[in-house]
Amino acid sequence: MIHEHQHPEAGFTWHRDAVIGYYSGPPNNWPVSKVEHNVLNRYDKTTTQYSEFDVNSIMLYPIPEEHTIGDFAVDWRNSNLSETDKAFINRIYPIDILPFDASVVAPNNKLYIFRGPEYIRITPGQGLDPGYPRNIAENWGNWPDEFADGIDAVMRYTDDKLYFFKGSKYLRYTPGVGVDDGFPKSIAEGWPFIRF
Fold first, then answer.
1. What secondary structure letter does DSSP report for 176?
2. Please, are residues 67 and 18 in contact by the beta-carbon 8 Å criterion?
3. What Rg do the C-alpha atoms of the chain give, in angstroms?
4. Residues 6+ away with beta carbon under 8 Å from 62
5. Closest CA to 90 of 78, 82, 102
6. pLDDT tens, 141-191?
7. CA distance 61 to 150
8. Of 14, 58, 76, 117, which is most buried with the most CB atoms under 10 A?
9. Which residues of 64-77 are buried (b: 16+ CB within 10 A; e: fewer)?
10. Within 10 Å of residue 35's Cβ, how many Cβ atoms?
11. Are 151 and 184 in contact (CB under 8 A)?
12. What is the SS3 string spanning 54-99?
């Protein structure tokens, strides 16, 4: 979460000279560049995810009226998460990640986390994609029945294919296509150097 006073659509205007005067003096003694970075500058709409400006956000620190143009001020009342804070946190950090069986970053740069017969997909910086968890067998093309109740491990190898392991077998998966022909195969056959 960003500091609410740096929100791209913050609903107030800073009194620049007053803010610089306050933060450049004791106890902070910040240079103007630090005041601009920490207080005055707003985040760009294209480089951050945000909700509507929330005057009740816990991330909106106290702002004395003399630091703004107009009568905008924030006192110390923001000691609890607002409803907007909670909704945004739930969107960015959507679930408790419980123990899982395997995970992999696929060629689409999405994180897939597998547990039992289900998986979730996470977009970095955005959180859980809508509609998850999903059933592996129903959503990964020609998924073999012997892998339907879950996997032991998964990895992405140099050819941008995914390799799923279950018991003594493995399969090779081409993203966007499905399980490659001739799979599953014995791990001993395809990976003879793996010895456990």
1. T
2. yes
3. 25
4. 74, 75, 76, 78
5. 82
6. 899 999 999 999 999 887 789 999 999 999 999 988 899 999 999 999 888
7. 47
8. 14
9. eeebbeeebebeee
10. 19
11. no
12. CCCCCCCCCECHHHEECCCCECCCCCCCCHHHHHHHHHHCCCCCCC
Task: Give the other-Cβ count within 10 Å of 132's Cβ.
Answer: 16
Structure tokens at 48: 């951050």
Contact predicate 102/152, CB 8 Å? yes
pLDDT tens digit sequence for 42-61: 988 877 767 788 888 888 88
- Enclosing H/E stretch for 188: helix 187-190
Q: Which of 31-35, 103-107, 185-189 has the highest mean pLDDT?
A: 31-35
What domains appear along the chain, each with residue ranges and CATH number?
Answer: 4-92 (no CATH), 102-190 (2.110.10.10)
pTM: 0.52
Q: What angle do CA 90, 43, 37 make, to 5 degrees?
A: 120
Torsions phi, psi of 105, nearest 5? -95, 115
